[in-house]
Amino acid sequence: MTDDTPGTPDQDARPGHGHEAAPAARPARAFDRHMLESLVCPVTHGRLDYDAARQELVSRTVGLAFPIREGIPIMLVGEARQIKAD
């Protein structure tokens, strides 16, 4: 008779039985600055400025900052952060 207690060495060694190591956290992807040349504000279709410190694309005309997550710009108005005009 085998020991079916969770955490036994036999169970841990078998694939697909829980106890797999969690995947390592992925480092944030770098934003391709060349992509900026082809992206425009979804509201005004105007220029966007890249804010590297905040990882955002900023449309100063409408006062919105679009986040960049894992190197991917999120160009949805509902995801944008409202900013104060300069």
Describe the structure.
- This protein is globular.
- It has a domain of 55 residues: N-terminal domain of TfIIb, CATH 2.20.25.10.
- About 9% of the residues have low confidence.
- It is 6% helix and 20% strand.
- The chain starts with 8 loop residues before the first helix and ends with a strand.
- The chain has 1 helix and 5 strands, in the order H-E-E-E-E-E.
- It has 86 residues and is mainly beta.
- The relative contact order is 0.15.
- Strands 1, 2, 3, 4 and 5 form a 5-stranded antiparallel beta sheet that branches.
In short, what is this structure?
This protein is mainly β.
Q: What assembly state would you assign to the polypeptide chains in this entry?
A: single chain
Instruction: Tell me the span between the first and last alpha carbons.
Output: 74 Å
CATH overall fold name of the domain at 32-86: N-terminal domain of TfIIb
Any low-confidence stretches, pLDDT <50, length ≥5? 8-15
Structural class call reads mainly beta
Shape assignment = globular
Report the average pLDDT across residues. Answer: 77
User: Helix fraction?
Assistant: under 10%
What is the CATH top level name of the domain at 32-86?
Mainly Beta
What kind of sheet is the major sheet? 5 strands, antiparallel
N-to-C series of helices and strands: HEEEEE
SS elements, strand count:
5
Helices, by number, come to 1
Strand content: 15-25%
